[in-house]
Amino acid sequence: MVFLARLGAPVRGFLEFLGDQAHLVLRTLRHGFSLRSGQWAVVGAQTKLQIRFTGLDAALLVGGTALLLGAVTLIQAFSQLSGLGAENYIGTLMVLIILRELGPLLTAVLVIGRSSTAIAAELGAMQLNGEVDALAAHGVNPYQYLLLPRWLGALLSIFALVVFFDGAALAGGFLVARLKYGISWGFFLESVRQALSNLDFAATLLKVVLFAGAITFHACHFGLRIRRSQTEIPQAVTRTVVSALVAVFIIDGLVAALFYF
After folding, report:
1. CA distance 178 to 59
2. Residue 157 domain flag
3. Contact, 49 vs 153, CB < 8 A?
């Protein structure tokens, strides 16, 4: 019985975690739909702050990473496919490696490193200082004021960053293709366009929605669970990063299996 109890404890903890995540998501959506006209201005202002931090402040990092990744991808491809007509596979390589997989995935990883840690630490500090309870005591719904703007900000920011990442990666790939084979911009774009499909757009959009939810609500879960001391904040941040990364990789695999298997 002791062995079974030890074996079942992680399973029980995991199911409780999933239940708490579902609770946060459903309560946030329900309270979001119940917003009155006068409350949208406050939620919108908070959402803008989240977009600025998560999206605008991360644009340079995302763009630089994507530019290098697009260039390195084609450099490695050309080195391996030298003499086999590598220039004919440029569009397929960029779509399969960058636009379909690495674009959404690496964008999510960068957002986890910058934004989910900040959300967990901020909410944890607010919880310790009694600010969350104070908001509720003054009639301010924490789901509407704290969780909803962070989720909307992450959703819009990740979508914009993925588009920016893909554009910068294509620019990096084109520079390599231009220098290596003298390929024109028109030929490069046409090659990418022929390799793209509506399925790729649908899969990317689904990943953006699921990634934003996983990143935000994992951070909110661990941040709001802090109760006793400041030493819990770094622990919550670490758990947020690990848990969100695992969730993002699982979601990426499930979406790939759903759309391309």
Report:
1. 25
2. yes
3. yes
Tokens coding 68:
């290098």
CA–CA–CA angle 93, 96, 97 (5° rounding): 75
Tokens of 238: 């670490």
Picking from 196, 213, 203, 214, the residue whose alpha carbon sits closest to that of residue 259 is 203
pLDDT in tens, the chain (261 residues): 666 566 667 777 777 878 888 888 898 888 888 888 778 888 889 999 999 999 999 999 999 999 998 888 888 777 766 655 566 677 777 888 888 888 999 999 999 998 999 999 999 999 988 888 888 888 888 888 889 999 999 999 999 999 999 999 999 988 888 887 788 888 888 888 888 888 989 999 999 999 999 999 999 999 988 888 888 899 999 999 999 999 999 999 999 999 887
Let me know if residue 167 belongs to a domain: yes
Domain count across the chain: 1
Per the listing, tokens 């459903």 go with 26
- Are 192 and 170 contacting, i.e. CB atoms less than 8 angstroms apart? yes
* Both structure tokens of 28: 């946030």
Q: By residue range, what is the domain housing residue 80? A: 41-260
pTM (predicted TM-score):
0.90
